[in-house]
Specification:
InterPro entries: Cyclic-di-GMP_PDE-like, EAL_dom, EAL_sf, GGDEF_dom, Nucleotide_cyclase, Rev_trsase/Diguanyl_cyclase
Pfam families: EAL (PF00563), GGDEF (PF00990)
Helix content: 55-70%
Strand order of the largest sheet: 8-9-11-12-13-14-15-16
Keywords: Membrane, Transmembrane, Transmembrane helix
Oligomer: single chain
Number of strands: 16
Number of helices: 25
Protein name: EAL domain-containing protein
Organism: Rheinheimera muenzenbergensis
Length: about 675
């Protein structure tokens, strides 16, 4: 082997070694950073290394014709794939269009490389008369195609090129590499020699090695610069999130406290007001229109605050649907109330969502730096206390007053005790009979709740139900009562007592989704017929959203559960609502029955209610019957059923069973 041939072999081996080393480094980085463009760069340089190794194998081995053809196919395929994968990697760094990237997917580029290699080989396997063109097609045309792909990749990199040294160097080296191929082909075509000399090939391969080394170095620099930029962006994002809410761009709690403390320190005796603003029933909004639409509401609301005429000095989102707004330059109570009302109007303005328009209300708690706290943390705490107090007493806005903490602590104590009562069966069901006036039989028992408190003794509903509503435990209590009532029906059935139980539903629970499914699960669990369960809802619950309320009632009736309107006459009492609501029974409120005997107006109202209910095909029951005269008057007015202390007071379970047995015995006589 001559020294020139040995030098040529060394250049090929060096190119293969450098390409393998670079591809290994890129393979390692692709596993670490999981970036598609690095993976294509790795594949590109791996193909180039295989290309060099196959050239060495073809040159060194005296292979048979078939093996030689396969080696030539491998050389063509790997060289084309080198350029195609490099082009795809550069495309990945510039194009974000998923459709474009799918069009130039790795699978399609591999198929394209295979097609080019197959055409270049088969054209000369079956065409002996084209042997003189083989060198042109398989070497020079291939080099021109690769040069074109390298120039295309260069143009892609130059498009939107930044200040990156790696990107600039990569563009230069790909252009140089393409230039090397083009110069070599042009030199060969215009040269008088039919075959390139070893010296010319050594120069060409050395230039190719230089281009490979330069491009590999450029890709490594580019990748490191990209990751450094990414890390800087992540650090900047982290710093941003340390101060701002990711969803809305408003300040977060920590940044609010920091800036609020600075403002309070600079304001001297000038009052700074902190308003805690929360959206009413926002959880229901998320459940009905979806979390994404709920997020849009929060984003739109933040923009309204920031672009408002009375723009708050600071706007922060402290969690969920809760915003903290700082107002300064408020020197009078009138100015403050005007600003509060303005903020409420910003919330009440319709929100434009993909699902349509949405209207909301809000609750605001107010704290003042002069009178309530001289620290940002304390002011936020006082505003939060005022906010929750406003929620509990259903006020749109409320300023902090001394002593509210005691009320909060008392409610927390009540919450703990109520939850403990439900878990340990301290709550008791009582049953009040509903008497049918037509045949003097029992229609049902209404289920009422009492509390046998371990320290406070026996508590009536009025002593703890207001706290249940304020603490938002109505749904939980309703579920507990429903389960206990269904369990009671199941146990009574074993005692041959077949009597429906009527259970009161809180308005909030009745309006929420999931009630039907929960009742179905209970009926299935205890194997109870739905006709044994009746639900009582107030007028206001049914009228809050008439269409939605009507749909809920229809769903329950389709299950076989009867629905009645409780406390009729104290709410809307609309004829349209009575006609549209598919209810089974109307319960006249006790306030009309109480003075009926001595008040002609109440007498006429009750009589009208009875006539109206019968005209609409609904049964009617009068509550609060406490005298024989009241019962007789109601019977004469054709009232269907009555309930009250004259019939029986609310009874414990054992007493209710005894009452039922006595009533059955009296009917059998």
């Amino acid at each position: 082997m001559t020294s020139e041939l040995f030098s040529r072999l060394i250049v090929y081996i060096t190119e293969a070694g450098v390409a393998l080393l670079l591809s290994y480094l890129l393979f390692h980085f692709s596993r670490v950073y999981q970036q598609p463009y690095i993976r294509f760069w790795f594949l590109s340089l791996l193909m180039f290394a295989l290309y060099q190794l196959l050239v060495i194998a073809k040159w060194a081995l005296a292979a048979p014709v078939v093996a030689d053809t396969l080696l030539q196919f491998g050389i063509l395929l790997t060289s084309y794939l080198f350029a195609l994968y490099l082009l795809r990697g550069m495309l990945e760094t510039r194009v974000s269009d998923a459709a474009m990237l799918r069009l130039w997917s790795g699978r399609r580029l591999t198929l394209l490389g295979c097609m080019l290699a197959v055409v270049s080989v088969l054209a000369f396997v079956f065409g002996n008369n084209m042997a003189q063109w083989q060198e042109y097609f398989q070497t020079h045309l291939r080099l021109l195609v690769i040069a074109l792909l390298l120039l295309t990749a260069t143009v892609i990199v130059l498009y939107r090129i930044g200040n990156s040294v790696g990107q600039r160097l990569a563009a230069i080296m790909m252009a140089v590499w393409a230039g090397v191929y083009i110069v070599f082909v042009v030199w060969y075509l215009v040269s008088a020699q039919q075959q390139a000399g070893i010296r010319a090939i050594l120069i060409f391969k050395s230039a190719e090695l230089f281009s490979l080394f330069g491009l590999g170095l450029a890709l490594l620099i580019w990748q490191q610069e990209h990751e450094r930029t990414t890390n800087l962006q992540l650090a900047a994002k982290t710093r941003y999130l340390n101060r701002y809410d990711q969803l809305t761009g408003a300040l977060n709690r920590d940044a609010l406290l920091l800036q609020l403390q600075e403002r309070m320190a600079a304001s001297d005796s000038t009052p700074v007001y902190l308003l805690m603003l929360g959206l009413d029933k926002f959880k229901t909004v998320n459940e009905s229109v979806g979390l994404k639409q709920g997020d849009q509401v929060l984003i739109q609301l933040t923009k309204r605050f920031e672009s408002s005429i009375l723009k708050p000095a600071l706007v922060a989102r402290t969690g969920g649907d809760i915003f903290a707004l700082v107002l300064s330059d408020m020197h009078t109570e009138t100015q403050l109330q005007f600003a509060v009302r303005h903020l409420q109007q910003l919330v009440e303005k319709n929100f434009e969502l993909a699902v349509g328009q949405l209207q909301l209300t809000c609750t605001i708690g107010i704290a003042c730096s002069v009178s309530d706290s001289n620290s940002a943390e304390g002011l936020l705490q006082k505003a939060n206390i005022a906010f929750h107090q406003a929620k509990r007493i259903q006020r749109q806005s409320l300023a902090y007053q001394a002593g509210m903490e005691d009320e909060t602590a008392r409610l927390i104590s009540w919450e703990t005790e109520l939850l403990h009562a439900m878990q340990h069966n301290e709550l008791l069901l009582y049953f009040q009979p509903q008497l049918n006036l037509r045949d003097n039989t029992l229609d049902a028992f209404e289920v009422l709740v009492r509390w046998q408190h371990p320290q406070k003794g026996f508590l009536m509903p009025g002593q703890f139900l207001p706290f249940v509503e304020q603490l938002g435990l109505s749904r939980k209590l309703d579920f507990w009562i429903l389960q206990q009532a269904v369990d009671t029906i199941s146990r009574w059935r074993q005692l041959k007592v077949q009597l429906p139980l009527a259970v009161n539903m809180s308005p909030l629970h009745f309006q929420q989704e999931g009630l039907k499914q929960h009742i179905q699960q209970l009926l299935l669990q205890y194997q109870i017929s739905p006709e044994m369960l009746e639900l009582e809802i107030t007028e206001n619950a049914a009228m809050h959203d008439m269409e939605k309320g009507s749909n809920h009632i229809v769903e329950l009736q389709q299950m076989g559960i009867r629905v009645s309107i409780d406390d009729f006459g104290t709410g809307y009492s609309s004829l349209a609502y009575l006609r549209r609501m598919p209810i089974d029974k109307i319960k006249i409120d006790r306030s009309f029955v109480m003075d009926m005997a001595g008040n002609d107006s109440d007498m006429m109202i009750v009589k009208t209610m009875i006539t109206l209910a019968h005209g609409l095909g609904k049964r009617i029951l009068a509550e609060g019957v406490e005298t024989a005269i009241q019962q007789e008057l109601l019977k004469n007015m054709s009232c269907d059923a009555v309930q009250g202390y004259y019939i029986a007071k609310p009874l414990a379970e054992a007493e209710a069973l005894m009452y039922f047995q006595k009533q059955q015995a009296s009917l059998s006589q």
